[in-house]
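QA checklist item 7 of 12: single-chain prediction sanity check.
[x] sequence parsed
[x] length recorded as 214
[x] structure emitted
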Amino acid sequence: MTSVEYLGSYRLTQSDDYFKLGRDSVLLARFATLRKGWSVCDLGCGVGSLLLLLSQREEELDRVGIELNPGAAALARQNLADNGLAGEILPGDLRDRTLLAGDRFHLVVSNPPYFRAGSGKSGGQARMDHTCSVAELCQAAGRLARTGGRFALVYRPERLAELFAALKAARWEPKRMQLLAYHRDKAPYAVLVEAVKDGGPGLEILPVHYQTQA
């Protein structure tokens, strides 16, 4: 079954068969550094939610999405077309080096499966990283981004050490970080991180974003 959600002036068609838009993607799209005319790639783009959210901020973008599920990729392509947005949605594995030329993008984004496979967490099958590890994700982002380009993603706080190690191994330097929490008396449930390819050291830690904030 399909449903429609409106993101400002954009219309997002979703399906019960694929992972739906969540708060994580909304906050990631607000968090990522973005400039007019930038080339942007969403790794594991699903039905194209993040590409639409980023386009709310800046419509003049070079948009590319990579999605393993052919049905979700087709719906992402439809969502761009329905909103009059140019872009390319590639069905395939983001680890495939022949899928897309490297050293191209100003910004790579991803809301990846961030629960470790077999961990027993309640993220559901679509949130488990059995199909792509964090190391493989960071390597793909590092290959696609130009030097000085940025990689913004949302991840689990308890896996920050693993994420930072994977970023460093793929030539990413973490530059900005923000924890997300539901309430002030609850531990953070997610973290937003932005890294720069071949960037210098120095990490800015932003105030915690609570779910009750606008």
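[x] summary fact logged: The CA atoms of residues 84 and 99 lie 25 Å apart.
[ ] second reviewer sign-off
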